[in-house]
Amino acid sequence: MLFRIMRRQFSNALAALILLGLGLLSAGPAFAHNIPVDALIQAYMKPQGHVLQVLMRMPLKSYSDADYYHHANGSVDLTRADGPLRTAAQVALFENLKVYENGRQLPFPHIVAVRMALDSDRSFATYDQALAQLKAPPLAATGDIYWDQAKLDVWFEYPIQSDQSNFSIHAAFDRLALHETTALQFISPNGVTRAYDLPGDAGLVSMDPSWINAATRFVNMGFHHILEGIDHLLFLFALIIPFRRIRPLIPVVTAFTIAHSITLIASAYGYAPDAEWFPPLIEMLIAVSIVYMALENIVVLKPRHRWVITFFFGLVHGFGFSWVLRDSLQLAGSHVLLSLLSFNVGVELGQLFMLALFVPALNLLFRYVVPYRIGSIILSAIVAHQAWHWMEDRWDALSQFPMPSITPESLISTIPWLMALVVMAAALWAVSLIAKRWGEDAPPEIPEHAAE
Amino acid sequence: MRKLIRSKNFLIGSAFAVALAGLGVAQFALQGKAEAQGVMAPKFEVDPFWPKPLPNHEVLGMSIGVWVDNNDHIWMVHRDNTVERTILQLKNHQGECCQPAPPVLAFDEAGNNIHAWGGHVDGAPYQWPESNHGIFVDYKGNVWIGGNGGPDSQILKFTQDGKFLMQIGKSGARAKAGAAADANAEGARNGFAANSNDPDNFGRVAKIFVDPKANEAYIADGYLNHRVAVLDADTGKMKRWWGAYGQNPVDDTVQPRYTADGPHDRAHENFFRNPVHCADMSVDRLVYVCDRVNDRMQVFTPEGKFVKEMYYKTATLTDGSVWDIAFSKDPQQKYIFMADGVDEHVVIIDRQTLTPIYTFGDGGNSAGEFHGVHSIAIDSKGNLFTTETYGGRRIQKFVYKGMGPVTAMDEGVAWPKS
Fold first, then answer.
1. Which of B23, B108, B160, B329 to mutate to test the interface with A (most CBs of A within 10 A)?
2. How close, in Å, is residue A139 to chain B by CA atoms?
3. Which of B105, B162, B213, B399 has the most crowded Cβ, counting Cβ within 10 A?
4. pLDDT per residue over A202-219, tens digit each?
5. pLDDT tens column, B49-108
């Protein structure tokens, strides 16, 4: 009996192996399909009248299934290359590109011209050169060109209602290389050119988003960014532990908001240092800000002027927020400032959402579980512990970079920031004077049962 | 009024105003100082994290060629047969580390190894060089390599995947009559004789450059011959060649030993010494030739007419000071970056005046230092790549940091400043 069971199991295993083998064999071509490590697709889109003109360049190595006619030495027979190039354009490009006019997907495009280009050709540096290249006669048939070292240039057109329509694209070229990037330039009828750097499949991208679309996208982005940023959330949590009511939180949260808006916008407009040590420095300072807040909660019973230190930490966090915008700001179209402000609004909404959770939760905790003072010390200690580890890790990352040397050039780029800091410190001081006069700079209200 | 001046708020407000004014004055003064610093030139910093480690416990031997192709992929060639015996235990089945990397390697900008091929193959339709030397990727994407081993008289052309396309010249063609047929080893180098007027074969080629406009290949020929040879890049047919000052190449004259004292001029040095180590063309179609041991670079028209020359550090003996060059990436190619593998630095040279502006680098094995900096190439962003022979045996990346003031003729190791 046992022998029969074993034999049956062996038969089943053998059958499974055979099926697996057949499966692998049938999957052979897929395994054999090689794509390059990296590829750059260059494209120009230009609506003109009732035609959307697209010029596109792709390394032919990204599509290895076209059947070229070869010479004896393996080079491409350029006199008969038109058909395979059209196939490559259709399969690799058109089938992975959806173009929309006012939300309506456009039909398959019409190919005006295809051309094989040398690896070294630079004519896609500008629209005019690319167009001239596509209007030029094909490559001389005498040169030995190997298809996987050449590029495909294609000019195709979509029929459109109007060149004033809103266009958007979904380019899913991620299968053309392990790391694919599409460098797209949209040339609007009024001559404004917008450049997009889209990695792989970047989803639906509007070429000229309306202000409402841009604002919605960036509010959404800011909201999700704060919820996904555990260090920002922990800072917020440490910040509000001493506060039991919303009113005294208002100047603190406002200071944080204004401060991070300043550095976020400055960073987006290119005023942040571009040194390699700067992002790790900011990451470490964010950890320091959490440690400081947590320790202050432990040491100081009634922290005064918290909004002042919060303002300076807000400047640091603003740089941190800006990293996420580096690759996304291209999606703002002509609404860059609005998108930045919208991102800030999203961040604020995220913060308010978290405050709405944190404040009642802390109130309940201190009322029913642990007295305020002990509870705030325990919570702050846990926060400080975690942030301390981050601080150590980030210090290690930062210390990989040598100290910047002090040169006239480095000082010249630093002084404007120092001046801005002095101006902001002066502004804070002035605000604190006003607040003192109005009696708003009171310490946080400690719950009645704090002394329990 | 007096009460106001003595108030705390007045003092704080004044302090802010004074701080702002002080910073403003400092900014103004520093701006003037920076502008007064004079000569500006391209500046670089070594990227110690480039490239990423090679796979499969692979290591490099003497690294004697580098080029950046049109897609900013960095190609290099090394001598896999020169990897130190003590680090070949994997190859020799005596340990886990290591084995030589294939001779031809390519990296992407991130430093990932994306191509690895080459080497002698039994029955192959080509003769792989005895000692690899020089690599170039032409405007069609094809890869060319030379060789400076004893019998190496050929150059090879491949696709980027290593598919053989063409061999020009035959290995062993320079063998003297009666020399041993297997005179391949280093000890048998004397069994070969130069012939810089041979239209079919070379004499230990150092480097290749293909001019896309004329589809012509310029050959630095080389370690045995004393010429620049120009070929049709498709057929390999030799079209013209020349020696120092554009004359017929001089092979037979017994060359006087190079001395630091010279004299160094046309009357006394009207010949290329071995090796003729580079022959690269600029955007204005001038051919720059590295006459390595003569410590000079000579400039020619594509037809071989002498234009001008520069001597560099003529006190440099042994292997000489002019090893390899790359042109800057500005449209005018305003600068030449020259590798000097004896003085162990890269020289930044004004291309028009052929005046050295400053150098970076030093001897050593740390990042940014050199031991036999042999070859140099540049990518589209202006980053430099160097390979080292002798004890260096590696490829390094120097990130272009824009234009900056020259602080010294010898700026030392291009260590990151930030």
1. B23
2. 12
3. B105
4. 888 888 888 888 899 899
5. 999 999 999 999 999 999 999 999 999 999 999 998 899 989 888 899 999 999 999 999
